[in-house]
Amino acid sequence: MDPRPPVNNGIFAGHLGAYFAPGSPSFTDFVAATVPHLLPGRIPEGLPGAGPHAGAGVEARHGTTIVALTFADGVVMAGDRRATAGNVIAQRDIEKVFITDSYSAVGIAGSAGIALEMVRLFSVDLEHYEKIEGVPLSLDGKANKLAGMLRQNLGAALQGFVVVPLFVGYDTDAADLSKAGRIVTYDPTGGRYDEWLGYHSVGSGSVFAKSSLKKLHDPKADEAKAVRTALEALYDAADDDTATGGPDMVRKIFPVVVSITGADGAVRHPDSEIAGITEQLLADRATRPGG
């Protein structure tokens, strides 16, 4: 009797041998070797959308502003909820900040469809590596993995489907745990850059958000103060950038906020908590609009 597990006759049909061949523990590498057209940004020749002008005339949804900042015990990331298509609000409640494993998270700006697919694949790849190797990938390994996925999307980026992620994590192996909260930025070609200032922002409202963070960021602050600072920066971005959505008190739509610490790992703050902080923020801005 064949001891090997049955293989679903789906998208990997015809690639049975690849399951049992020795190779990299990367799930992305496995997909690239068997069904490469399923990777983000790749369209097989002969299908609609393939070719050098695949992005021409396509008005895809775009995610906008993500902010990240370190604090005494880790790092916080927050993102607004608006997606745009040209000058139109395409979605008011899109989520652009995702927990990717126990100690990391990714925020996305740019072409939303490809970015969401990339983050899902990234999360699966981290889980796959841990199952195969028995240990999680290091924080630098995670950052480099995401850089490689961006590099694979370069063809789509040149056609206009640009993805700009922001990666944050807590380095459990750091010699100085006060600096264990890390922020990594990227460019569309896959270049990765460690952000040692302790704060950063990507997306259409990033210029205004970074100006706010530059004045408000305190690396010795506690988690509550860091979350408030992130929300302040998103509010300032929405105040000057039409593509960034501010808090919607009528529809009860608030920014997505994730904090990562050594004690609790990656945690998404509940909407009820963010709503309370936002109400206080708006009350304070009513008396002092400039912040």
Write the SSE topology.
Layout: H1 16-20, H2 27-34, E1 62-63, E2 66-71, E3 74-79, E4 83-85, E5 88-91, E6 97-101, E7 104-111, H3 112-133, H4 139-152, H5 154-158, E8 163-170, E9 181-186, E10 192-194, E11 199-202, H6 206-216, H7 223-240, E12 256-261, E13 265-268, H8 271-287
Give a quick summary of the entry:
This protein is α+β, with helices and mostly antiparallel strands. It contains 8 helices and 13 strands.
What do these coordinates show?
The protein has 291 residues and is of the alpha+beta class. It has one domain: Aminohydrolase, N-terminal nucleophile (Ntn) domain (Glutamine Phosphoribosylpyrophosphate, subunit 1, domain 1, 4-Layer Sandwich). 34% of the residues lie in helices and 22% in strands. It contains eight helices and 13 strands. The strands form two sheets. Strands 1, 4, 5, 6, 7, 8, 9 and 10 form an eight-stranded antiparallel β-sheet that branches. A five-stranded antiparallel β-sheet has the order 11-2-3-12-13, with helices on one face. The longest helix is centred in the middle third of the chain and has 22 residues. The chain is globular.
